[in-house]
TrEMBL record, chains A, B:
Gene3D superfamilies xrefs: Aldolase class I, nicotinate phosphoribosyltransferase
Top-level division of the source organism's lineage: Bacteria
Designated name of the protein: Nicotinate phosphoribosyltransferase
Species of origin: Actinomadura chokoriensis
Family statement: Belongs to the NAPRTase family.
Coiled-coil regions listed: none
EC number per UniProt: 6.3.4.21
Pathway: Cofactor biosynthesis; NAD(+) biosynthesis; nicotinate D-ribonucleotide from nicotinate: step 1/1
Keyword Transcription: no
Amino acid sequence: MVPTVGLKVPLVDDGDGTALLTDQYELTMLQAALRSGTAGRRSVFEVFARSLPAGRRYGVVAGVGRLLDAIEAFRFEAAELEFLAANGIVDEPTLRWLEKYRFTGNVWGYAEGDCYFPESPILVVEGTFGEAVLLETLALSVLNHDCAIASAASRMVQAAQGRPIIEMGSRRTHERAAVAAARAAYVAGFSTTSNLEAGRLYGVPTAGTSAHSFSLLHDSERHAFEAQLASLGDGTTLLVDTYDVERAVRTAVELAGPPLGAVRIDSGDLGVMARRVRAQLDSLGAHDTRIVVTGDLDEFGIAALAAAPVDGYGVGTALVTGSGAPTASLIYKLVARADSPDEDAPMRPVAKRSPGKPSRGGRKTAIRRIDGHGTAFSETISTGEAMPGQRDRLLHVPLVRNGDIVGREPLGSARERHARSVAELPTTAIQLSKGEPAVPTEFVQGGPRP
Amino acid sequence: MVPTVGLKVPLVDDGDGTALLTDQYELTMLQAALRSGTAGRRSVFEVFARSLPAGRRYGVVAGVGRLLDAIEAFRFEAAELEFLAANGIVDEPTLRWLEKYRFTGNVWGYAEGDCYFPESPILVVEGTFGEAVLLETLALSVLNHDCAIASAASRMVQAAQGRPIIEMGSRRTHERAAVAAARAAYVAGFSTTSNLEAGRLYGVPTAGTSAHSFSLLHDSERHAFEAQLASLGDGTTLLVDTYDVERAVRTAVELAGPPLGAVRIDSGDLGVMARRVRAQLDSLGAHDTRIVVTGDLDEFGIAALAAAPVDGYGVGTALVTGSGAPTASLIYKLVARADSPDEDAPMRPVAKRSPGKPSRGGRKTAIRRIDGHGTAFSETISTGEAMPGQRDRLLHVPLVRNGDIVGREPLGSARERHARSVAELPTTAIQLSKGEPAVPTEFVQGGPRP
């Protein structure tokens, strides 16, 4: 799309612009700062959570790759500028500034898939105040959503103890959030998703066979099974709880024989049903036919089925709603800024003093300290130079350098990193019960950064 | 975008296609039904919730306008077809069917903004099985999200008793869900949103002035206030809790005088602070300066401030997360289908018998029965012809007729309808305490529809 400010162009939703996924106050602050001469002051904003959702042991960083795409698409083009002008949201000088806007600063962050803890500075944005303040809402939206989903997903993956989980919650959340949720769940260790757009956009493996409506469409369950087997092959998963599970399993094995891939149970007491169906399948010689259970599962429901003969789980609502914590409560705070717009003006730590919501001034570095057994024992945050020991991990990686995206990576890398990051935590991390963060956050006063 | 199946085109995200915002099993069911000859059977699917979120008195229908846009954009074009082909998700005959896909059926639904109750058939989709099953995930995603948000928003609006509420939760939810949330909140009676894209796409009035970072950017709070007043005028809202509220209010009135538009308090005990600030403003002669409070408010927090001198509320997290109920638990169920693909084959009611999840077969009509005082007393659902009394309201309106969208309306109409719909409910509806639905759902057996 070519910017054509001054010309009237139709206001179409081009669908990929991200510049207005923003709270109005960022633009009014920009306008006021441009006028007061402070918009050019070098500034550092940090993203962190004051606490984890009640009782959670760790959080999971997700959405980093999506955020980088969104920053790249953050441009004020004709549609955006015309809206702002027509509604008098900002003045002429600000419109001219926005027209040329392109983020030229630097971003560091925790790598996608890594774990985080209270106060972990998971994103650091450095630029002029004007260019950095504009990214506040977008950065928080992406990270608050994706981290919430990945944090819940990771607990489910731990509860499943190696059994695969399919993500199938698209219908229970906003249609685009569903795509991001599928991606975040995959980072956290889910095997597949039902969401096709997540397959197309992000390469997440997709899965899915049939619903109850398919059985109801046909003149009998037998007809429905025959139709599905004829089209999708014996390796498919047949849904067996539309009418009577025992009869359905008998019909399924009669039609497909032992090569039948799997049966799915979506209702009733899943543990009891799984045992009965396993015994029935075995008695029919279908020893290799797997049992997949779905139906309002969350991490606790999955854990309760650990001893049941279940070969895979499907999780929907609990995943896309963050299993009780639908947002990660991450905030975006100005922690340092220059005294003048000069490029080499010294940086000054800043912090608000609002009751109950204090912030810590100064740009932070973060280290995960690792003991001789390879286990994390401290999230060490410092306003000075990071001083990692030999085994410790420096947590920030470069994501954007002078406006260029440098932090892209394949999604599989984030998924592998997450598995390593959880494995490195103390064993308390994978307890589902409520408790303290698995690793304590410790603040170290440091000298000024060089 | 021109479909160019057969040619290799780059897989770009054109951003407005909706056909892959779908669970894979809809496509595999389509494939199997095409093969078994059942895909062309006329079918009726209904969207309803088995229950409201625990203790809620009513739900609010929202997202209808968004769903109509999404249905119109539901086409399998080059990018979608190539993904499906490359990943072997469906076979060649299905790809050819999808390429020509366009929904040609009918959709009726509760009008946007109307209230709903357990089992209310808020959407009825009629078409061939193939064309109607494909809309399952998309319809549920849009409605589950938007209804959840609007249902929470409506309670907040009732609690605010006429005081305006600004929606400011964008940062706490997925970046595109945020836009839909702002729209749903407006339908439910919120005054404004901070989300600029909701302003551009849907015409929701936008608002916003400044954050704490603006005060921290400047050398003093006084400088920050001067900058904001110079740029945005005396009618702006100054944020007064960055350092010390009393000093900030004094400075604010000193600089702007009594014409100061408003002050915003974002932390502390909002009721106590509002009383102190009101007294201080009055003592300084700023009788018309309004007080806006924000900071983790939900419907209960708003209600608790009813007696405080507050002129407006800002609500973020609680709004975009549905205040404890982030999804509306709506489901999409096949309730009737023909015995053959013949256009005039008789329709047969169908229902599954899964334990705990039974469904009622047959296409439904719905009436809100209204007594002589204009108060609703029954949600009457029938599988026969609707027989409304003189005061009763027939709840279904036509949304799509033979594939053509006929149900579009200005967003303001939905907002006005919602206000009327809530006003018509018994007064128990606006109690925030947990309880039964404000209007009981009653099933009436009816004869066959003509």
